[in-house]
Specification:
By secondary structure, the protein is mainly alpha-helical. The chain has seven helices and two strands. The chain folds into two domains: 47 residues, no CATH class; 143 residues, no CATH class. A two-stranded antiparallel ribbon has the order 1-2.
């Protein structure tokens, strides 16, 4: 901040000197035209007063801080992208479980789940396929946050243990874990970003 103030003072002084030289040159040449500028009166002196545009002079961030900012930006982007999907997943899961509770016949339950799966693939398939592996890991955390169940438990409940184990193996090879659970302390950065999103939506809804 001291360097900013010093730089501002030097620039202001230089501009004042230039304007004073221009005024003196104009008067010595006998010209009637001059440069009109705002002035400030201090005692018996009348001085030019020029307001400079506010700007900041900063040093390049240290490497460690750049890495932290990059990590935060990447996480924030992933949460913003996947949070709507996690909300939809939690809502759909509640609807599916409610519907399954009314179906006692195993054949009817299977037919309903197959139809629902096709419906969801048509609605979300292309969008979810475009997610990066990193975004997919964040999404699994958020699904557990929003639904109270991790992805492994959800698949096991709806599609059976064999399917759950199969997809867990696939996730493992891509560095993921369907059993990932959300922890507010461990995932406090994600929680902070989620709170930011929800606060923004609340503000938009009431303003």
């Amino acid at each position: 901040m001291r360097r900013v103030k010093t730089l501002t003072f030097i620039v202001t002084l230089a501009i004042c000197c230039i304007l004073c030289r221009q005024k003196a040159a104009a008067q010595s040449a006998g010209e009637s035209r001059g440069v009109s500028v705002p002035v400030v009166v201090i005692g018996t002196d009348t001085l030019p007063s020029i307001t400079l545009q506010v700007f900041e002079v900063t040093d390049k961030l240290p490497r460690k801080l750049r890495k932290q900012r990059e990590r935060w930006t990447r996480l924030r982007n992933a949460v913003y992208v996947t949070y709507p999907y996690a909300n939809s997943a939690a809502r759909i899961l509640r609807d599916v479980n409610g519907r399954l509770a009314t179906l006692s016949n195993k054949k009817d339950r299977k037919a309903y789940l197959n139809a629902k799966e096709k419906e969801l693939k048509a609605e979300f398939g292309d969008k979810l396929e475009n997610l990066s592996i990193y975004q997919g890991r964040v999404l699994m955390k958020l699904i557990d946050r929003q639904s109270g169940q991790n992805c492994y438990a959800i698949i096991k409940e709806l599609k059976g243990g064999f399917n759950a184990r199969m997809w867990q193996t696939v996730a493992f090879f891509f560095g993921g874990n369907l059993k990932s659970e959300y922890d507010k302390e461990e995932d406090r950065d994600i929680e902070q970003i989620v709170q930011e999103i929800e606060m923004y939506r609340y503000f938009r809804a009431y303003n």
